[in-house]
Amino acid sequence: RAVESQSEGQCAPVDSLWRRYSEFELLRNYLSVTYPHIVVPPLPEKRADFVWHKLSADNMDPDFVERRRIGLENFLLRVASHPVLCQDKIFYAFLTQEGGWKEMVNETGFQLKADSRLKALNATFRVKNPDKRFTELKHYSDELQSVISHLLRVRARVADRLYGVYKVHGNYGRVFSEWSAIEKEMGDGLQSAGHHMDVYAASIDDILEEEEHYADQLKEYLFYAEALRAVCRKHELMQYDLEMAAQDLTSKKQQCEELATGTVRTFSLKGMTSKLFGQETPEQREAKIKVLEEQIQEVEEQLKSKNLEGRDFVKSAWADIERFKEQKNHDLKEALISYAVMQISMCKKGIQVWTNAKECFSKM
Amino acid sequence: AAGAPKPLPSSGPKSLREMPHPLATSSSEEMGPALTPSPDLLLPRSIADKDLSLPNGTPVDNSSPASSSSLLNRLQLDDDLDVETRDLFVIVDDPKKHVCTMETYITYRVTTKTTRAEFDLPEYSVRRRYQDFDWLRNKLEESQPTHLIPPLPEKFVVKGVVDRFSEEFVETRRKALDKFLKRITDHPVLSFNEHFNVFLTAKDLNAYKKQGMALLSKMGESVKYVTGGYKLRSRPLEFAAIGDYLDTFSLKLGTIDRIAQRIIKEQLEYLVELREYGPVYSTWGGLEVELSEPLEGVSACIGNCCTALEELSEDMTEDFLPVLREYILYAESMKNVLKKRDQVQAEYEAKLEAVALKREDRPKVPTDVEKCQDRVECFNADLKADMERWQNNKRQDFRQLLMGMADKNIQYYEKVCVT
After folding, report:
1. pTM above 0.80, yes or no
2. Pfam families, per this entry (chain B) (predicted)?
């Protein structure tokens, strides 16, 4: 297990302490459950994915560990810069309290609040009237995930091929050197040009390493898609709950009415049996009606509060989503710009090498 | 001595290139006193008159090679010949396909412009096919065995793999054939070869071909070299060195050829991936609102890169690789000339021994042979110098090409815009 150290960058005076990846996971789970309306920043990947051949898929590989460290740092910075999340006490403790943090988290009992996956899945299928914006958002995040994965996969292949092209040029270096040995006037020129070919071949390593940062930036947003979906799911769950409660209310009211007026609107087994086997006494009916009326009141209360909850949720979730959108646009724009800058620099290096080689050749 | 024509003109249309190859200078200096002017030397002399406008009309080769080359040096400094001093221009172009009952083939137009006396007209335009070029080369090898004849592009192509009539193939061949003729044109001796003249001028080359041995040119064909029986004890150091050089040279060029091909292959595979990469950005752009423009931009740029890369690979295949192959062929033919030279020397040594045993005066044959050997050495060095120079410039040329292309590729990259 990779162990990372991270230090407190904010106002608190202390510290640095040690945290394992699993503790980061725990923190994130806590935040997701406690703030379901927030798009919680994702963790970097647990295992190396989207690797191209030179990169090792080994979790212990120092380059991977380093990139993961940067990713975890980034995660903490995201949380710390979030207007809501940064105020969380558990988060603060994560940064400052070495011992007993795990217990502290478990004491909050957040696991109990977590919605079961089954429930959520059920809600997703059965919900009738979710907020359209959330449905759209869900589709968007599905497609975003798909397109970014595709992009990362192809990018890895592109990197692989590019690596090959550069490395083969290194062979030129060797041949030119051997050739220069038998030449008189052309010797020096060939030799120096060969050296430039070697430089060219070696340059690809740094170039591709830099590109990994770009890939990591894309990966973050790949994982963000899952966070978006989580918020959508929560909404669907709440909406479903609401719908179920409303349904419940309607059916109870109906029952009540039926009992009161004696008319049977809808078919029910009880109704039938009572018709067949004799009706109830007026006292029994009264009792039932009373119970129902109580229940109806309860459910009405519940419905009210659920409605309120639902609306609040939608409002605050949507606010955070807007915040997220802006962050995403900003970050990705920067990522693309820096990618372009990388490409330009790569080309400038290429120009430099070949111009040097050209000069060597011209002196032959 | 009178019977042996000397195709060594240290005069006139000798390659007007000034640079001295160490080997050339020394040998020509050595040869200086040995070369006696031959009154039989007709053609070069007249040309020498025309070109250099010597006042008294005497052949320039009276003087030692050194002084005449210095004369030439004053006339010409650059490898790019002035239009005025050059008197023979040849161009190969306009390939056309001919479909006949028996076969289908391509002919090329060969246009000649000249002021030389050997040519009746100042301009000629004939059609020739590869066979004809091949015939010419064989004739040149026969008639000028001591010279390096430039190589031709490969004769045979694997029918299944290469399309003989594809535009690319025909164009590559045309360029090679053009170069072949230009090299002969630039050669001080070969350009005056009778067969070459006929090649450039005859309307019906086949008729001439059939005449075969009936027309013997005065230049060199009377001296035939017997390739048989004589074994050379040891090659003189300088030629052994050349032989070794050529071996290594061919080897290295072969390696470079393989590397270049590998690079092209890798580039094409890279291209395949790039072609998939670009559109993904486009798809993503379709998904986004604010980011759609930048993403589309990236996609477009990647598309540009693909195009540039494609051009790079094409140019490499069409311009770089053929030159490598040509030089490998050149090296091969040079090695053959070396072998012939060995034969000549062997014969000379054998005859010399025979003479020594008989204690006669130096008979003519060995003298001829010796002169031949001298000739070979001289030419070999001369032409090697040529070759180096050409190589030098060629390399510059196609390296510049290669880098120009890398540049182009790169400039496309520079057009990558995001916002």
Report:
1. no
2. PX
